[in-house]
Specification:
This protein has 623 residues and is an alpha+beta fold. Among the domains are: 69 residues, Roll (SH3 type barrels); 154 residues, no CATH class; 48 residues; 140 residues, Dockerin domain (Type 1 dockerin domain), CATH 1.10.1330.10. Helices cover 28% and strands 17% of the residues. The strands form nine sheets. It has a five-stranded antiparallel β-sheet with strand order 6-5-4-1-7, with no helix packed on it. Helix 7 packs across helix 8, helix 9 packs across helix 10 and helix 16 runs antiparallel to helix 18. The protein is globular, with a radius of gyration of 26 Å. It starts with a helix and ends in a 9-residue tail after the last helix.
């Protein structure tokens, strides 16, 4: 009888194990995905055009179709699908949904440079997880948020039980190194039903500590109002005494703790080398050195109380972008890694790329850097060098994956499978090789190099001369460098996009000097909207202009910066509302900056997008 039970358990486990150990494609039992085929498609509360509009969706976005059987209703002859989107349940007219078994979002693939991989991966993480209710490192591993877009215990980013702890510790160390721990951080901490008195780590035992002494009655009252049990409060009191600016919010899951632990046991793993005592007695190998953990260990990592101390609390931090997440903090995370310097393809620092990714997709750049460091390590490897590799009979070269997205554990080589995902959309060359960016210089594929500073040149591409520094002796200027570079090249170097006479893809708080640093050989003149000069240290806002010495003039747009002060806040929301009510006229760059829903008009869809940004639910695409 015991043999039959054991065999049944093994079968159940293997049915669940299609998650990657390292990171990655969502685990979900949703009926079907639905790809939106129109713009401003309305998610309604009822299967009727009279139903309340809950959200507006754009072409290419995905929803979960919870019932593939369409229901009849009013206003849509095609029938209505019941769907879930961004934490909301509602109905969408079947005319605007294409059923898919998997999500097909490109995320700017193929990822042919480190920047494309970091940016595209950030979009994947932001849209698929953070904006969908899995907005902390803990929730990305253990999806126990009843308000998530996905069913609880499904759609989890990684199987590694220790991942949230590792990411939190890296974040803590970076904040500490930059003397930022006194800032007002906010933490959302799950609370389960029927929690045991404590949980035990198979190797470390039971966590002890905390305090029952109440020193701050007002703080204690807030904890009680939030619904934190005493077993949580004894740890939060200690944190509050050291960090009085920190605030804590209870996320009431409504889930039974033991039942949840049993489910998570089937979809979580631990490294044998990390804790041999933590491995389940069935010793089920999931990938390489990874095994199913025993229920004791799973319960320990699932229990939030074990991580309510300063070195691990950041697994409960909201992962949306905040101004306190500076480039200096990101640099400290990347120190002593190959990312401590300049990306040889894009010619800009890795730290600035992570910052741009965070601001663009409303996700913490500190978290992105921590995640990347955990996923790809500190030394250069195949997934970060662009080197040639062959997988399943196909050869690839010049592709990058900084978060190991797409690395299924079921693959013979998960890391290479992730690179194949990164190459999505690429074409073969005449030799039958899928090629990415192999002409701009790649890292030497020496896995032991800590901080590579040299590049190797593709034999098929002539070496490009580096422009000389400005000199007081013009006759010594390197003759191979043209005196005038086309404006299009300068715009590309500054990572700006040209739409008519407007320049887009500019991130909030970008200074004049930061753009000047990205281009040489061209005299640029920056002005404010009123025509007065714009200093190098000043930030560029909607309505500012740039003039090239060759005569071209362009006006900047920051989507959402409708007031033209360089900040996206409630003042911009007010202006958009006034415009929609006919109380204010928007023209030129200011009208263009209000087009957040990618249409030619400014309407309620744009207002909704701006509100979602201000609530931290969605980022604003500046492209």
């Amino acid at each position: 009888m015991q043999t039959v039970k054991k065999f049944s358990f093994i079968l159940i486990v293997f049915c669940f194990l299609f998650l990657s150990i390292f990171s990655f494609i969502p685990y979900t039992d949703a009926s079907m995905y639905g790809k939106i085929t129109g713009n401003e498609v309305r998610l309604r509360s009822l299967a009727s055009t009279s139903g309340e509009v809950l959200d507006y969706l754009s072409k290419g976005e995905y929803v979960i179709v919870t019932d593939t059987n369409k229901v009849s209703g009013e206003g849509c002859s095609f029938g209505w699908y019941k769907v879930e989107y961004s934490g909301k349940s509602g109905f969408i007219c079947g005319q605007y949904i294409e059923l898919k078994e998997t999500m097909e979002m490109s995320y700017s693939r193929p990822w042919t440079s480190p920047k494309k991989a970091i940016m595209g991966g950030a979009e994947f993480i932001s849209s698929g997880y953070i904006s969908a209710g899995q907005f902390t490192s803990y929730l990305k591993k253990f999806n126990v948020n009843p308000n998530s877009s996905y069913k609880v215990n499904n759609h989890q980013y990684m199987a590694n039980l220790e991942a949230p702890f590792s990411e939190a510790k890296t974040t803590y160390n970076s904040y500490k190194a930059n003397d930022l721990l006194k800032l007002p951080f906010h933490f959302t901490i799950p609370v389960f039903e029927n929690m045991p008195e404590n949980t035990k780590h198979s190797a470390k035992g039971v966590k002890t500590g905390g305090t029952s002494e109440v020193k701050d009655q007002e703080f204690e009252k807030k904890l009680e109002e939030q619904g934190f049990p005493e077993s949580y409060r004894k740890w939060l009191r200690v944190l509050h005494e050291s960090y009085p600016n920190w605030t804590f919010e209870a996320l009431k899951t409504g889930l039974d703790f033991q039942s949840t632990a049993l489910i998570q046991k089937s979809i979580g793993s631990i490294q044998l080398s990390s804790c041999s005592e933590c491995i389940d007695e069935a010793r089920i190998n999931t990938e390489g050195n990874w095994y199913i953990a025993n229920i004791e260990t799973v319960s320990y990592y699932l229990d939030p109380r074990n991580f309510l101390e300063d070195t691990s609390i950041f697994m409960f931090e909201d992962l949306s972008y905040k101004e306190i997440q500076t480039e200096e903090v990101v640099k400290s995370i990347l120190s002593n890694t190959f990312m401590n310097g300049v990306d040889p393809i894009d010619k800009i620092s890795y730290s600035s790329i992570f910052m741009e990714a965070g601001k663009t997709y409303n996700v913490s750049p500190v978290y992105l850097a921590s995640l990347s460091r955990q996923e790809v390590g500190t030394k250069l490897g195949t997934v970060t060098s662009g080197e040639r590799f062959t997988y399943k009979g196909q050869t690839y070269e010049g592709f990058y994956n900084f978060y190991n997205i797409g690395a299924y554990s079921s693959e013979a080589n998960p890391a290479l499978a992730g690179l194949v995902y990164a190459a999505g959309g690429a074409s073969k060359n005449s030799d039958g090789i899928y090629v990415g960016n192999i002409g701009g210089g790649t890292f030497t594929p020496d896995k032991n190099v800590e901080s590579p500073s040299q590049t190797v040149d593709s034999p098929s591409t002539p070496k490009e001369e580096k422009p000389s520094e400005p000199s007081s002796e013009p006759e010594k200027t390197t003759p191979s460098v043209p005196e005038v570079t086309p404006v299009a090249t300068h715009l590309n170097n500054m990572d700006l996009h040209l739409k008519s006479t407007f320049l887009t893809n500019l991130q909030v708080q970008t200074t004049v000097q930061s753009l000047k640093n990205k281009t040489v050989g061209q005299e640029l003149t920056f002005k404010k909207a009123n025509g007065s000069p714009l200093g190098d240290s000043e930030i560029i806002t909607t309505g500012c202009t740039v003039s090239f010495s060759t005569g071209e003039n362009y006006t900047f747009i920051i989507y959402g910066d409708i007031s033209g002060d360089g900040i996206i806040n409630s003042a911009d929301l007010l202006k958009m509302r006034q415009y929609l009510l006919g109380q204010l006229k928007l023209e030129g760059a200011y009208f263009e900056s209000a087009k957040l829903a990618n249409t030619d008009q400014v309407n309620s869809a744009d207002l909704l997008r701006l509100r979602q940004y201000l609530l931290g639910q969605k980022g604003i695409n500046q492209a």
